[in-house]
Amino acid sequence: MIKTLKPNATHSNTQDYVDPEQVRKDVAEMLGVLKNGGVAILGLDVAYAVIGSKENAIKRIFEAKNRSYEKPSGFFSSWKISNEIHILPNEKREMIREVIEQEKLPFSVVAPFNPSHSFFKNVDPFVIQNSSKSGTIDMLLNAGVLHDELVNQSWEMGMPVFGSSANTSLMGSKYRAEDIEAEVLSAVDLIVDYGLSKYHNPLGRSSTIIDFNNFSVIRVGVMFEQLQKAFKDRFNINLVTTK
């Protein structure tokens, strides 16, 4: 049976206030599940995500989503972790920090990384292999209170967390736990349900993914227009889309 954690009934959406102590406890329980090889779903501001840490969990996620291994998992991260693990010039590191701290926007950064960093020392090789591509890794940043607490606690534990949107492949992101397909739920041990995702939208978009090698946009996602404006106004950089 899947266990579900929810905030107090008066708080129905991820953008609403949830008691920080409850967030801390919910994340601690979720990470306990992941540490034991389990799979969890949680509500992010950008969409619901399905996550794991161990090899078997990642395999379960790919199978349940019917996801191609050509599409690596994302890495749940922060500016601090990106600053330590991504291999980028200082000016690009500062861009990431500024967009997070000043613009307060969610986005994912793809960039070369250091796979020998101590944070990855206990990660199964299979997980790193299927969470990176051509020497780069995709880090999701600034995706809400649950995401930030998850990242902070996982860093303290020395246990990286990987995953992707909680939907079957190519079927669009889900913004409520009850909308997630049964096939995905079949792989899950725990759901942290904080209601409707903040950036829910009719296009099924999740995070915008930016390749920091050349500022090309791998995926247009939520808050894309705001990100475009921020990069142009602050850094005179045009985010390049292929469509």
Describe the protein:
By secondary structure, this protein is α/β, with parallel strands linked by helices. The protein has a single domain (3-235), classed as DHBP synthase (Alpha-Beta Complex), CATH 3.90.870.10. Helices cover 34% and strands 18% of the residues. It has 8 helices and 11 strands. The protein has helices at 20-35, 55-65, 79-85, 90-103, 125-129, 145-157, 182-185, 224-235, and strands at 3-5, 40-43, 48-52, 74-76, 107-112, 132-133, 136-141, 162-165, 190-192, 209-211, 216-219. Strands 1, 2, 3, 4, 5, 6, 7, 8, 9, 10 and 11 form an 11-stranded mixed beta sheet that branches. α1 crosses α6. The longest helix is centred in the first third of the chain and has 16 residues, at 20-35.
Structure at a glance:
The chain is 34% helix and 18% strand.
Structural class call reads alpha/beta
Please identify, by name, the CATH architecture: Alpha-Beta Complex
The CATH topology name reads DHBP synthase
Element string (H = helix, E = strand): EHEEHEHHEHEEHEHEEEH
Helical amount: 25-40%
The CATH superfamily turns out to be DHBP synthase
Domain module tally: 1
So what's the overall shape?
A: globular
The major beta sheet can be summarized as: 11 strands, mixed
Beta-strand content: 15-25%
Count, helices: 8
- Give the beta-strand count: 11
Secondary-structure topology with pairs:
Elements: E1 3-5, H1 20-35, E2 40-43, E3 48-52, H2 55-65, E4 74-76, H3 79-85, H4 90-103, E5 107-112, H5 125-129, E6 132-133, E7 136-141, H6 145-157, E8 162-165, H7 182-185, E9 190-192, E10 209-211, E11 216-219, H8 224-235
Parallel strand pairs: 1-9, 2-9, 4-7, 5-10
Antiparallel strand pairs: 2-3, 3-8, 4-8, 5-7, 6-7, 10-11
Helix pairs in contact: 1-6
